[in-house]
What does this fold into?
Amino acid sequence: MIVDKRVSGKTRIMGVLGNPVEHSISPQLHNTLSTRLGIDTVYVPFRVEKADLDNAVKGLKALNVLGFNVTIPYKKDIMKFIDDNTKEALLMGAVNTVKNIDGRLYGYNTDAEGFSRSFKEESGATFKGKNILIIGAGGVSRAIAVKTAIEGAKHISLVNRTISKALDIAGIIENNYETGIRCLDSEDKKYKDAFSEADIVINTTSVGMYPEIEGCPVDKKINFMSHQIIYDVIYNPAKSKLLKKAEKSGCKAMNGLGMLFYQGIYAYEIWTGIKLSEDIIKEIYKSFVNILKN
Ligand code: ATR
It folds into this structure.
């Protein structure tokens, strides 16, 4: 019998806290990273009921874990149990990464950082001086709106069927950044203009996600222009109906796979204090794509 030596008395624990967590590929990503780098950590899933969240966080502290990710539906709820949330995470209203240093918990949002990096890498563009149209006004939309404002976006149009949620995000942007912002629903007369004025369109809703792959968050009447960049946070399917339409119009089109990957890379760097080289990142990305395929 082969002796399994992966976990020793010195191994530090990391994990993901959420409900459900069974679908998460983060354990495979982080454990692959640790094996590749020879770092003595193990990453495990923690399925937690809402009523137990407080106790779960206290438990993780008491067990002296190195850190943990937070996923749906606790990215907002977790914040009240964290000792220090970054300013960005507070404005984004969500924490997805927590580091434990001597029993003190530090909260970060690496989703937005992951989004920004993958967008820039794949499109070759930045947000500075750009007109951006964001579809949806949930947690992901808020994080992306704040991040693009931080990175110098000129104007954001927020399109959402529930206008009150868009207005909440607009208030945060108006109070903290120079970026202009307006809120629209898809019935709005200015909807078509907002699309034609946008340099970058970002879908943050689940419309078009597996298994409802025929859904498209953009009205049929809207035409894209080839200079526009279209980003869909959906990565299953790899090419949503929105991205297919964008490609047909000659636009640069990209999905949320890179965002998912880089949020994990940034979390890992925060927990371990290691700055991963570009070569390692490229190598791990190949394994990551294979994890998703299988
Ligand atoms: P997340 O944290 O992933 O952003 P969320 O907070 O539930 O998730 O937000 C999902 C967003 O997608 C919301 O803006 C939601 O619209 P409402 O604010 O009107 O609820 C939007 N969304 C989800 N399903 C949708 C659908 N079928 N049509 C239009 N918008 C949809």
The mean pLDDT is 96. The CA atoms of residues 27 and 283 lie 17 Å apart.
